[in-house]
Design a protein that fits this description.
The chain is mostly helical. It has a domain of 71 residues. Helices cover 87% and strands 0% of the residues. It contains three helices and no strands. The longest helix is centred in the middle third of the chain and has 45 residues. 0% of the residues are buried.
Length: 105
């Protein structure tokens, strides 16, 4: 059972997939660097601009994700320090529930 929300997992996967696309596009740009022609040069310029923009967007998305993760960790830490017995009770209840669900199998 995953402790992370589904949207966070999909965001991580999206970032990883996006990195792969950027790397593949950069490899394609390098592979066609010695090819001539005006149209190819124009396409290469557009792709280079798109890659630069995509890298900036990726960096911003990673920064935002890290900030949300840190904020969630801080909030959890504060809650546990402010109300330790509630946290222990919640953890015990979750453990009991998981134990009951696994015991039925």
């Amino acid at each position: 059972m995953s402790a992370r929300p589904a949207n966070e997992v999909s965001t991580d996967q999206l970032i990883q997939d996006f990195k792969v696309v950027v790397a593949d596009a950069e490899a394609l740009m390098k592979a066609t660097a010695d090819q001539g022609g005006e149209k190819l040069a124009a396409v290469r310029t557009r792709v280079a601009d798109s890659l630069a923009h995509a890298k900036e967007s990726l960096a911003e998305a990673q920064t935002a994700l890290m900030q949300r993760t840190r904020a969630a960790a801080r909030a959890t830490d504060e809650y546990v320090h402010d109300k330790p017995w509630y946290a222990v009770g919640i953890a015990a209840a979750i453990g009991l529930l998981i134990g009951l669900l696994l015991g039925r199998r």
